[in-house]
Structure formats: C-alpha cells, structure tokens
Amino acid sequence: MNRGAAHAYLQQLRNAELPVFAEITTGTENRPVHRHQGYFELLAVFAGACRLVVGGGEYFIKKGDVLVIKGGLEHRIEDACQLKAGILHYQIGRIAGWAQELPKSPGSWRFFTEGSFAGKPPEFREGFHLSPSGLQYLEWLVDRVIDEGKKKDRDSLAKIKAYFLALAAFIAGQEKRLDLNAAVRTRAGDLQLREVVKYITEHYAEPIKVSQLAEMTYLSPRHFTRIFKEYFQTTPMNFITNCRLQRARLLLAEKNCSITQVANESGFSDSNYFARQFKKAFGVSPSEYRVRLKENSAGPV
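Given the sequence above, the corresponding structure tokens read:
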C-alpha cells in the first residue's frame, strides 16, 4: 500500500469512529514525522529493524520489540531495513473500561494507557521484547483487527474488542519479559551505533568498507557485523545499499537525469549493478519506476 492509499485507509477508519484499528508497514518505506491526535499507537516489529525518532530521542528497534506511543506525540520511522511492523491504533478513552472485562485486570495495563515514553522531552521508559512464538501470535491478532476493520459490519466492533482484549491479556502474561532495553537508545555507550548510522547516512554516496565502520566501534569487522545484524536484522553492507536505494528513488522522482547519473549520485559505481539491486528491492527497474511516477500523481509506487 503506497503512502497515499495508506493515509486514505487510515482516514476512512478514523471516520468510521472505530476505537481500535490496525495497519501493517513493510519494506524499506520510511514514515515521515506525524502524530495521531486522540489515538495511542502500539508498534510491534515483526521483522527487520528501523530507527524510531520520538521527541528528541532516537531508538533502534528490531524484530520482537513492542512499544506504545502516546496520542499526540510526534514520531517518525527512519532507516527502515526489511521492516515489517504492525501498528495498532486505539482511543484510550473508549477502551479504558475494557480491562474490567478481563478475568484479572492486567498489571501491565499501564503499558497501554501511559505508553513507553515519559517526560519532556519524552524518553524511553519501557517496552517488551517477545519470543518468536509470542510475536507470531501478536501478528495474528493484529491481522484479525485489520480484517474486521475492513468489514465494518455490526459484528466487527465486538470482534475487534475481543481481539484487543486477547492482545491485552497476552501482554499481561509477558510481564516477566518486560525489557527496559527493548529500544536501544542511541548514545555513545551503545557500541557507538549512533555514530555508525550517522556516518552511513551522511557518506553512503562514497565508498564505505565494513572494516572502516568496525573501527568506529573498536570491534573486529566480524564481531561488528554480528552485533550490527543483531540490532538491524541485516548486514552493514545491506544497510548501506538500502540508503543508496532510498536516495536513488528521490533522485528518480526529483531530477531528470540519466540512470547512470542517478546511480553515481547514489553511491553505485556500476549502473548495471544498481539496476539489479533496484529491481530486487522495488520490483521494477529504475526506468520503469520513473515512468510509473509520471503516470501516478499520488506519489511513489
């Protein structure tokens, strides 16, 4: 679903006044700064990784991490790498009484009603990191909420409520898995990953070697690659390639220059290699992508 279609879909759900609705974001699509007035946002990373910017803080989140962003709090997703995330929106006022219907009011209900960030500017407070089986169940619940939101019949709200309560009960049972480091704050002590990512995003158009990045973290290239992959679910070189491809998409949309020029300005020294990587990532060649952009005024495909 492209950005325009996704926005229209979310607006449609808000207009239907559903207290809970969900969406899935996938691939390498970043999400610009935005806020959801009146709706909290539960963000669950089903695959890949990204950088979440909330207020003045930046956080690396990866597969298995579950966070809640308060309604009205500005946030954005950057450096998405093979990302698949479930996003559950809910109106806190309309679901506040639902916890009373659970057999036992979950001790982690505060997670839903207060969110993962506190203070001004907001700083990360708490989140969950789920096992693969737990994450699979959570993804199934989010998919059910999406399906019921599309039906919009008289039984949909009751089913959405049931799935949301099942999700709340599940999270309540995960309290022992509460992970205060689920979102790794990007500070100098965190293997200097912030400096590495900053360097990549500023110099991706230049030749970059893994050994060069490893030196920034005082680790061997092999150890650095392992740690990097643990956080981002991708290798450093794939991360660099993703940055270059994102830049190429912008150039194809904004500049009327040759494919070879786009490749060079994006950091690809070989235009044929660039074309292969572009098609692998987006399903179309750079030239086909440019044609579709001109045909589709709604935005990037």
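The first strand starts at residue 20 and ends at 27. Try to locate this feature in the token string yourself.
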